[in-house]
Design goal:
Largest sheet: 7 strands, mixed
Structural class: alpha/beta
Oligomer: single chain
Number of domains: 2
Strand order of the largest sheet: 5-4-1-6-11-8-12
CATH architecture of the largest domain: Alpha-Beta Complex
CATH superfamily of the largest domain: Spore Coat Polysaccharide Biosynthesis Protein SpsA, Chain A
CATH topology of the largest domain: Spore Coat Polysaccharide Biosynthesis Protein SpsA, Chain A
Length: 294
């Protein structure tokens, strides 16, 4: 399976903070925003990741991650000349996908949950169709909404409905099979002038090959596209990290625990960042793994 992070756009809702920097490079508490979606793909066991960004900022991501080898992954980069909807990620990334299944995560989405790895593994194991991840919200009219029949099967999908049939919002995390690039290429722009991810998902729904993973209690989903939501996300991360003594989206720790990098590689990075809680989290992970079980 391949992974794509869509980190384009102009971030107009965050102006003037994003007049000189891409939104996904802004910090959420103690690390760049893009670390959070990157951590999701790594937790899913994905080694090949494509970052799609606007022309002015793609080199910033290249400086941040280089070729990905320090994390035991391979990171490629692609320019999005003009934002034309989420399905554009698949037409731009057609050669990168190469007929494999692909997990797409939006660069401004943060996911957190104790069973995240299991949830991702279940979605990744499906060889055919698409999987979306839904999350209960109080204001579903602001989102794409999926509704279900009495057996829990998805039967409808609406984009920002005035009268939503459920409270289950579609999050910015998706898994598609190897047909997705061809399907995306056949889409037509909506009245907004963009390709709509809802139209792409609906194709799978109509043919009976759409699965929905519900993110229930114990999961958090935060969309950080506004000043208020950006601040809320930072406060959430700070609270979890301070109270539980863990690091959310510590990429080197994830890489080590996933077996992407060796203990020596992780230790080198941890020592380089030892003055920070982030670096200490890497070193703590090494100590815990080395400690004998009682």
């Amino acid at each position: 399976m391949k992974g794509i992070i869509l980190a384009g756009g102009t971030g107009t809702r965050l102006h003037p903070a994003t007049l000189a920097i891409n939104k996904q490079l802004l910090p959420i508490y103690d690390k760049p925003m893009i670390y959070y979606p990157m951590s999701v793909l790594m937790l899913a066991g994905i080694h090949d990741i494509l970052i799609i960004a606007s022309p002015d900022y793609v080199d910033n991501y290249r400086r941040l991650f280089e070729d990905g080898s320090s994390l035991g992954i391979r990171v490629a980069y692609m320019v999005q000349p003009k934002p034309e909807g989420l399905p554009q990620a698949f037409t731009l990334g057609r050669e990168f996908i190469g007929g494999d299944s692909v997990m797409l995560v939006l660069g401004d989405n943060l996911f957190f949950g104790a069973n995240m790895t299991e949830l991702l593994a279940r979605a990744s194991s499906r060889r055919r169709g698409a999987t979306i991840f839904s999350y209960r919200v109080d204001d579903p009219s602001r989102y794409g909404v999926v509704d279900f029949d009495e057996s829990g099967n998805a039967v409808g999908l609406e984009e920002k409905p005035l009268h939503p049939r459920s409270n289950q919002a579609v999050t910015g995390l998706y898994v598609f099979d190897g047909t997705v690039a061809d399907r995306a290429a056949s889409l037509r722009p909506s009245a907004r002038g963009e390709l709509e991810i809802t139209d792409l998902i609906r194709e799978y729904l109509l043919e009976g090959s759409l699965a929905v993973e519900l993110m229930g209690r114990g999961f958090a989903w935060l969309d950080t596209g506004t000043h208020d939501s950006l601040l809320e996300a930072g406060e959430f991360v700070r609270t979890i990290q301070k109270r539980q003594g863990i690091q959310i989206a510590c990429l080197e720790e994830i890489a080590y625990r996933q077996g992407f990098i060796t203990a020596d590689q992780a230790r080198s990075r941890g020592r380089a960042l030892a003055k920070t809680a982030y670096g200490q989290a890497i070193l703590t992970a090494l100590e815990q793994r080395a400690r004998p079980r009682m």
